[in-house]
Amino acid sequence: MNATLTRLFPGWLAALLFLALPLTAPAAAQKNDTRYREFPAYGFEFKPLKEFSDVPVGGRLAAEGIVGQFESERGPQAKYANGKRGAYPCALYVYYLKPEGPESGEASGEREVDERRTAKDFVLDRYAGAVKEDGLEVEVSELKASKTITGERAEVVGKLDMTLGNESTDLEVVFDVYTFVHGHAKVIFLWDYPADKKTRGKWSKAVEKSMKSFQLMKEGATTVDVTDVNSDSSYEDLLTFHQNDVEQTPGWRLVETPSKQYLIKTNEDKDKYIKEVILRLEASRELYEEDFPPAAPITQISVVRVCATESDFHTYGGTSSGVAGWFNPGTEELVLYFGDGSKDETMSVMAHEGFHQYCHFLFGRAEAHRWFDEGHGDYYGAWKMKGKKLIQDDDMKGGLSRVPVIKEMMRNDDIKPLSKHIRYDHGQWQNQGPSNVSCYAQSFALVFFLREGTKGNVKRKYWKDEYADIIPSYMATLKAGFDAAYEEVRKEGQEALDALAELDPEDVDPDHEAGARDRVEKPWKYARADKQEIWDAAMEASWGKIDEEEFEERWLSYVDDVL
Predict the structure, then answer these.
(1) Which of 19, 107, 182, 504 has its CA 20 to 30 A from that of 308?
(2) Binning pLDDT at 50, 70 and 90, where does residue 33 land?
(3) Ranges in the chain annotated CATH 3.40.1000.10
(4) CATH T-level assignment (fold) for domain 235-367
């Protein structure tokens, strides 16, 4: 029998962590590892606990100053407030924080230290509303890690909101916080484990022993430059940056692709799988460029992270068991895993998310309606490799199949009106129902009809020539609208910089100057207020040129007769 345990972090709506753990998991304390886990970019190391998964840090955690995250593979048994028992997924977060002021580093992950933040503050921030400040108990003590390094230990005890199965409950947890001063920085370890007397005693000793192993790396040890870069940087700089990044987590490596359009970060040790990933990625890229040729070469390098297991995948992204892959526009990284499922499904997910990643750069980081994004993602996910070539198929396979869903929607009269479906904002589209995949199925059927009709593969009884202009007109108007909005933001930023240049340097507000420069360099972060206006213009230039009711009738007949 399995129990699903979820930590409830309301502030992270899209980042809930679901873990399927057996109720019969052993309650034995963790043993200490004999090997050091090095953090070469930051100059320290420690011996973690055995059977802890060591997972790379994603963008959300890195923004908090976290440089390492670990999770127990077999958590101790715990009795929850609702009377049920289940295994608790103990975790460790490692922070590296620089002080405020001129000595603060510029390297990625080096966040400034607010000296007023206590161990309790770190707990409340990390567990974002799932831990209540009222009732927290804190016990502070000193810890000697070596003759020269003394740290502070703060044991913070409080109740953590959880979900066990389908029931909301809570558990009393120890948040064991260790702080070490390292040069001009602070290294903070935040552990958590159940607070019941038996578990706490065993885990407290194991964690303390681990923390006593903390030390600075030996003199002469190689530290790496993790100077921040982004997808607009040169290939050489990106290669160096991402090579340094994978070296921060044991078991991970960086793989280049022949086209040099992708960099793959993976802990998958089967080279055969990675070769297949590269083959599908590059074939898909050729297909995207054929259907959506860029006006100028896309110079940005796409980063793809391939996790070897589903557990690594969910821990890295803080996602639930229903997620198979994603593209994050903020980090510009595509993330997926192999796991125990079908390899074909993994490749379909990669092609789907790869289209999002391609369009992100093709459209200058603009946002399109979900019918366009997700419909095309599923359309390209349905293609399959035959040898070294991509061959079109009429649907994705397995749990990703959309045709049976759209057919059932038609039988049950669950199809949403076309005029609404294509104009939904992201939230409306996602929640249109009746199931969580209905939105994908309807958009897939719509895009499939449009793309096949444009190719001449749809009979005249369903198709009209004017329908071929819908997607090109939509894209052109969307891109022109965002380009204009970006240019306006850049102009405002440059005017602000020009005005600041006239001032005495002592009178220049650094935050104001940084904000203005950010508007010049990253205008897409500030043009979102114009999105609805741009969307409306794109819809008018495309769908507004046809009889939507007639289109809907012809399209649904095609779905019913052909798909």
Answers:
(1) 107
(2) confident
(3) 2-216
(4) Glutaredoxin (3.40.30)
At the fourth CATH level, which superfamily is domain 2-216?
Mog1/PsbP, alpha/beta/alpha sandwich (3.40.1000.10)
Distance between CA 518 and CA 512 in Å, rounded?
Answer: 10
pTM: 0.81
CA 300 – CA 320 distance, rounded (Å): 30
Give the SS3 label for residue 309. coil
User: Both tokens of residue 229?
Assistant: 């870069």
Locate 230 and state its tokens: 């982004």
Residues found in the chain: 563
User: DSSP assignment, residue 385?
Assistant: E
* CA 73 – CA 49 distance, rounded (Å): 11
Label each residue of 365-378 as H, E or C: CCCCCHHHHHHHHH
Q: What is the pLDDT of residues 500-540, one digit of tens each?
A: 999 998 889 998 999 999 999 889 888 776 889 999 999 99
Q: Within 10 A of 9 (CB to CB), how many other CB atoms are there?
A: 19
- DSSP codes of every residue in 177-190: EEEEEETTEEEEEE
pLDDT tens for each residue of 405-435: 999 999 999 999 999 999 999 999 999 999 9
In DSSP terms, 305 is beta-bridged to: 265, 335
The DSSP code for 417 is: P
CATH 3.40.30.160-classified regions of the chain: 235-367
> Is the CB of residue 32 less than 8 Å from the CB of residue 210?
yes
